[in-house]
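Regression test attached.
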Amino acid sequence: MRFASDNAGPVHPAVMDALVQANQGWALPYGNEDITERACARVRDVFEAPEAAVYFVATGTAANALALATLTRPFDAIFCTPEAHIEEDECNAPEFYTGGAKLTLVDSHHGLMRADALTSAIGKLGSLHGPQPGAVSITQVTERGTLYTLDQIAELARIAHNANMPLHLDGARFANACSVLGCTAAEMSWKAGVDAVSFGGTKNGLMGVEAVILFNPEKAWQFELRRKRGGHLFSKKRFLAAQMDAYLTDGLWLDMAAQANAAAAKLTAGLKQIDRVRFDHAPQANMLYVSFPRADHQRLHNDGAQYDCKGTLDGPPDEMIGARLVCDWSMPDHLIQQFLDHFDG
Amino acid sequence: MRFASDNAGPVHPAVMDALVQANQGWALPYGNEDITERACARVRDVFEAPEAAVYFVATGTAANALALATLTRPFDAIFCTPEAHIEEDECNAPEFYTGGAKLTLVDSHHGLMRADALTSAIGKLGSLHGPQPGAVSITQVTERGTLYTLDQIAELARIAHNANMPLHLDGARFANACSVLGCTAAEMSWKAGVDAVSFGGTKNGLMGVEAVILFNPEKAWQFELRRKRGGHLFSKKRFLAAQMDAYLTDGLWLDMAAQANAAAAKLTAGLKQIDRVRFDHAPQANMLYVSFPRADHQRLHNDGAQYDCKGTLDGPPDEMIGARLVCDWSMPDHLIQQFLDHFDG
Amino acid sequence: MRFASDNAGPVHPAVMDALVQANQGWALPYGNEDITERACARVRDVFEAPEAAVYFVATGTAANALALATLTRPFDAIFCTPEAHIEEDECNAPEFYTGGAKLTLVDSHHGLMRADALTSAIGKLGSLHGPQPGAVSITQVTERGTLYTLDQIAELARIAHNANMPLHLDGARFANACSVLGCTAAEMSWKAGVDAVSFGGTKNGLMGVEAVILFNPEKAWQFELRRKRGGHLFSKKRFLAAQMDAYLTDGLWLDMAAQANAAAAKLTAGLKQIDRVRFDHAPQANMLYVSFPRADHQRLHNDGAQYDCKGTLDGPPDEMIGARLVCDWSMPDHLIQQFLDHFDG
Amino acid sequence: MRFASDNAGPVHPAVMDALVQANQGWALPYGNEDITERACARVRDVFEAPEAAVYFVATGTAANALALATLTRPFDAIFCTPEAHIEEDECNAPEFYTGGAKLTLVDSHHGLMRADALTSAIGKLGSLHGPQPGAVSITQVTERGTLYTLDQIAELARIAHNANMPLHLDGARFANACSVLGCTAAEMSWKAGVDAVSFGGTKNGLMGVEAVILFNPEKAWQFELRRKRGGHLFSKKRFLAAQMDAYLTDGLWLDMAAQANAAAAKLTAGLKQIDRVRFDHAPQANMLYVSFPRADHQRLHNDGAQYDCKGTLDGPPDEMIGARLVCDWSMPDHLIQQFLDHFDG
């Protein structure tokens, strides 16, 4: 019962095939070959952004940190929520790559940045003694499994742009969000005012690739240099590109996302039948935040269930303890059923 | 009517004399002379800390940033309040000097860090994916004009030490606090568990000197190199040292602080007589946070009063608007009276 | 005729198989699985270093920069040759990761750091005004295709250690060197006084993996945090580990290196028969630095030969122009012959 | 006999007077007062640069590092000589402030950067794998006591500009150079193609002030933020400005420089009479590099002479050992005579 993360499942067979294909023969290093060119073109097509600058890196932290470093200056503030991956889970990578910019936290509601709180936080800047307006960064799907509507994104973009700041979108689960919202990649990004996207693949069936997309390519040359300086330019870049190429072929990216979302929906439906399960945030994509009694956690644990448990297993059996449950594209029905069955115990 | 800041008044005549004295003749640069040696010895004496490492720099931002950089690592979190000078007024200097450590905000009450909130904030760390425990930094007098008791400092120190973190004290107004609490410098620092102090002089009658005191000198050599690397090693260091030497001679530092505090007390007493003045924080040293109607602000402004006004002068005359009023050692009675007189208008 | 680089050939089939194998099913992310454990154990075995800390990253620049950042401090000097990859080809990554340490260049002879020049360069340090002794970094195989003997490495290690500095070895072509010298990995590293190795795989048949080995694991925890902070911790780490696992199974790493070296030897032997070819450095592993007339370059170029040419193709046909020719494990005889045949033209 | 440095003598009385004057009464902090405005205007006047951005900091290292950080990007190379103060004596401050730019050394002759070597060093850049063209930095008076002619500066500026790089001039001894060359400040800076100057005062009779002058003010706002972030914005800025104001009043800066140069000329003339004294570089301003037998060093040392001696006092009495001798504005004739007299011994 593997609900710990969507980065723990297997790579999709079509992606593995693409890697094997990419290995035929010899190719110039550092992206001077066909596969990289083709994969970049596919990203531009999917995003309907023929002018966009597109770069591949192997981790989400690299994608976010390099994108933010390209967009901001060391004496800036970057606005994000307290739950943001860039704040909580990147061990100060944004501070490192930006040369010391400050992450300024903006109040959120179920993981969604509040527009009024952003306006208020921006309003506090202004003096030469404090940081300057740098960028706003939001995450879609949020770190609490919720979704911004396109209008909400557009509103945050307006606020950011009014303060002369670009809007960055951490899209580690971009595909899952697109699939739920039924919108295009363009609609969820530049058409809503997003200036740069970390377009995730690793949590959705790739071996390890994220694309950074800068819709305004003006600073793109800087990204290239920062990527090299960060040790993120792969000599055998074709093996990053091949994954992204397969991902965007025949809608594989959306198919996998739909499978993950469907699995999470099934899990949600099952857990809603169980009285003692509380939903801490309304799940909208492939990630659930629920609480249930410790006794259930113990039972699940003894049976080898893997997921992020927010408390210790020792203590009063009735105490409610949180859990994060994540489904990826490969989650089979029987594991969901097996998980649910434990609540009959 | 000069209430804008305690860094706007004149340098004390005894300090100017010391500078003139220090200018007699020739001296080896970079602190290899008597005055620096004597001034360091005085700091160690006043703090009853014969082993402490003592360094002089010219600004409070340099003192704080260098102290924190010496105490932490780039992948660490530094805990401070939302109002902390290091968070609000140093334009990312701590992030710069530490190489990208993260300032993690801890809830405060009237500018004072809450012990329970610190415990809770520390509890959220722990994963290798997020920042590591680095240091706790508090300010005494706080940025809201309030004071920690010695017990409160000791409690925060215990919490920090239990998490293997040192406690740094931003003492830009250290003297003002000592004077009010009637305690020794040692009692308000290492005896209460403080590991490093930025001991301010600039806001209390010096031209521009702060001492950084590391009670555990183990990492002191690192401070020296970081100071040089930051461009804060003065070749003519005797002119920093001479100021600190005069400051700590015959209790001048405490005398000036007492004068500043007395002036603020007089201003407080006067404002308490005025019904429409609200105290936003209970003033305990030389800094007042009050609110009063815009009409009064307008009258004061027209008469040339200088202070930090938290709103605009245009708008409804009855609206309450905040003000920060600060007194330094040189504040004469007649200016306080002049300020108060405006409320008779 | 693909002589541009040893990072342009295909991944070895056994490595591709290992990736496919690693993709069976589900595994905890971030290295909490069997394959990572097994691959680390193999590295320790091959290096006869049961206590060593072992980390996998995807690029050589990341390996070098993270290793050096772990070994040094921002106010330090790192000694290397003018040709060092860390100096010439990493776009300031070492400066970035170390927080601003200085690369101090030491004279070299055919790419080999001169011991007397290292002694002299170290002797210039000492003042608090300049950088402090940080680390010495050498490359084996050097960037000029030459090799240090074990004694030469040991001598540089002694000089470094006498100045309290560790010795880092950039082993992007470690396997090629081991194969030529006929020594063990341990003999070419810790037994010769090397403290940390960037053990390359990418240039020798892997898709993209380098191991960083710290023989003294004292600072290993720091490496982990710096790697995460640099965005180099892979969630699906098993796919890095699987490559290294295959690499060190049944001597594949040495077999591939031997093939590459043999191909280069064949090319060398052929070129030595040609009077107008000059050897700029004596090739010792899989990389040749030769010069020959422009007319030959033109002929090769017209036939699609790919290699690093040190001049322009336009100009006097007799002018001698340099070339760097590199062979990887997959270089077939017929391409070498095809290259040589052009000199009959 | 104080020949150790020109930062060891007294502050000029007119400067002390200006400080006392500046201390009359109260002034808004951070430069919002008359003295700062007046001093900036004087700098612009002296440099005939009405549009220039002018900033005051307290140390030369801060001036250089902040200027270079404003002019370059972290992935850049900064070209300087091996003897440059920024390379040898600033403990990696340029690397720190620039966020990791690389100091790339250009061959020099008697401390003067060679134009051909600069051209050649620039020519080696170009790849995305290495650093990009950032800035060229030269020092006038050089660190070896020699001077660039105006034509030589103009030639280096042309080379820099052709590569799209600005030229920075470290003018710690700018006044001494101007005085010798008999040129204006404008001629030795922007009229010769210099884009930014660190205009020194500390080594020439001030307590501790350097002005940074950016002739193109486009990036000036960045300088302000970087200065604050570096902890180099003085709250009581009037005390920096007052020194510079006095310095540029009635030609004091040139008078003091002329005195220092004259003292050095006298010392030079005396030493030239002594056969066993060798001039290592031809002294052109206020700094001499000479060598003489150890026996003379011993005699001077025993009599308390202070200067930078390049060797140890123990050893064969006839061995030639280098010395750096520096004169400041306050050097009296009798000390020069006293120094020379030791060679009669």
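Expected vs. actual: identical. Residues 176 and 257 of chain C are 5 Å apart (CA to CA).
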